[in-house]
């Protein structure tokens, strides 16, 4: 073997034994970028990427920093965790894959190069969990007497800790009245309405019928999806009847509408009777009995008496009954004289709060689209509103005056108006 051949052999041997000292020596392996931290929802896949340059003959390994468990060396998976795998391309991009991450997979992961001393960098795997309610500690629908109190609870789990808030499904404000019974006594009570309430417990005190309805508790922690739960609060109270007109006068031969407004929860059974017999009035040729539901606890009772006759005159009573009580209110229907044939149309007008539909006699239909010839001086004498309630609480209705079609004067709602040119004079004379 000649010298040059010996030299070449030595060179090849040296290359095999100390490859990096000869060629890579000037280019020690190094990381070409940091490891990106990962935030992964429970059950999803995670991939860490370690960027390396000048790896030469060195190897890349993955270690879970907290347990020191070796995950993989080069392209061999070491851990027994079946969900872990590795991949690489060009000896410069080294990936650690974790399928379907579990809570225990969370933590610091280290990418190492087996230089001396060892080089490493770390990346954090954070496992997040979307919110969920703890069914054991979350309220279901509630029933409470008016004036009572309820405590609604929604406990949510998740990572990070979910934020729980409350809203009413109908968008009405939540009214927090302090104090809740059992908390600091003698504290001055004051109500705070708010569209959203924060916290796992919602305490409602001195609850009123207007607070009846669906309450939503919503849990969110930034990890979709947020969850919500509907809780229905049913507020119970005995029936209350409100009568817009206790005195109604009409000429014979006309159609007359009597009405009562009932609030009750649970919903009451509602009916009309006429004194003195007290028989329940049902729909017939002469009578039309209607009930219009305004809300889960409000109904309008409408009795139409067609073609008023002498024996129709008298006292009518509307009655409402539920499991908590029973109440009735009366309306006196009297005859007013008047040349029924020749007079300008006698109107029995009712304005519906929601749809402005007009209920009334046949004569009404012809005037539907015209401005109404309403003499506002009349209705003040027509009767007076009344409230019938089994308790001593008097609740004034929240009905507000509205403008009549194209009319310019404010006009009381839910009022029967009977108009005839002679009427106001007549009534004033009678001293109503
Ligand atoms: C990763 O998270 C750790 C702490 O959890 C932080 O110190 C480090 O700077 C983060 N790295 C990057 C690249 O954001
Ligand atoms: C009645 O009409 C006037 C003028 O058109 C208006 O300013 C007012 O808001 C109306 N009121 C109601 C209760 O609709």
UniProtKB/TrEMBL annotation:
This is Ig-like domain-containing protein. Residues 1-24 form the signal peptide. Pfam families: I-set (PF07679), Ig_3 (PF13927). Residues 29-126, 131-228, 238-334 form the Ig-like domain. Keywords: Cell membrane, Disulfide bond, Glycoprotein, Immunoglobulin domain, Membrane, Repeat, Signal. One of its GO terms (cellular component) is plasma membrane. PROSITE patterns: IG_LIKE. Gene3D superfamilies: Immunoglobulins (2.60.40.10). It is found in: Cell membrane. Its main location: membrane. It comes from the Eukaryota.
């Amino acid at each position: 073997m000649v010298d040059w051949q010996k030299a070449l052999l030595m060179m090849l041997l040296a290359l095999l034994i100390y490859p990096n000292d000869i060629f890579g020596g000037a280019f020690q392996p190094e990381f070409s970028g940091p490891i990106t931290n990962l935030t992964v929802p429970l059950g999803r896949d995670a991939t860490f990427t370690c960027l390396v340059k000048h790896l030469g003959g060195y190897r890349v390994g993955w270690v879970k920093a907290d347990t020191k468990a070796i995950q993989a060396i080069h392209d061999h998976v070491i851990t027994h965790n079946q969900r872990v795998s590795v991949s690489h391309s060009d000896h410069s991009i080294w990936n650690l894959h974790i399928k379907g991450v579990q809570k225990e997979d969370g933590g610091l992961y280290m990418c190492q190069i087996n230089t001396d001393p060892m080089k490493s960098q770390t990346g954090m795997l954070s496992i997040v969990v979307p919110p969920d309610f703890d069914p054991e500690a979350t309220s279901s629908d509630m029933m409470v007497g008016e004036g009572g109190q309820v405590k609604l609870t929604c406990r949510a789990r998740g990572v990070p800790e979910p934020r729980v808030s409350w809203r009413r499904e109908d968008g009405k404000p939540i009214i927090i009245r302090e104090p809740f019974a059992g908390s600091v006594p003698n504290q001055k009570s004051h109500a705070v309405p708010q569209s959203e309430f924060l916290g796992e417990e919602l305490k409602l005190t001195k609850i009123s019928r207007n607070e009846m309805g669906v309450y939503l508790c919503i849990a969110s922690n930034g990890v979709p999806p947020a969850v919500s739960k509907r809780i229905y609060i049913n507020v119970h109270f005995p029936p209350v009847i409100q009568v817009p007109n206790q005195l109604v006068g009409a000429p014979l031969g006309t159609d007359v509408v009597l009405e009562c407004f009932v609030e009750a929860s649970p919903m009451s059974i509602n009916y009309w009777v006429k004194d003195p017999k007290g028989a329940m009035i049902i729909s017939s040729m002469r009578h039309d009995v209607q009930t219009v539901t305004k809300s889960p606890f409000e109904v309008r009772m409408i009795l139409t008496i067609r073609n008023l006759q002498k024996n129709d005159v008298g006292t009518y009573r509307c009655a409402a009954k539920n499991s908590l009580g029973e109440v009735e209110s009366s309306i006196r229907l009297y005859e007013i004289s008047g040349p029924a044939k020749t007079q300008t149309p006698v109107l029995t007008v009712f304005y519906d709060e929601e749809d402005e539909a007009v209920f009334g006699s046949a004569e009404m239909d012809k005037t539907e689209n015209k401005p109404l010839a309403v003499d506002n001086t009349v209705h003040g004498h027509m009767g007076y509103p009344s409230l019938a309630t089994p308790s001593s609480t008097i609740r004034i209705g929240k009905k507000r005056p509205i403008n009549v079609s194209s009319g310019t004067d404010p006009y009381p709602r839910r009022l029967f108006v009977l108009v005839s040119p002679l009427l106001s004079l007549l009534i004033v004379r009678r001293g109503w």
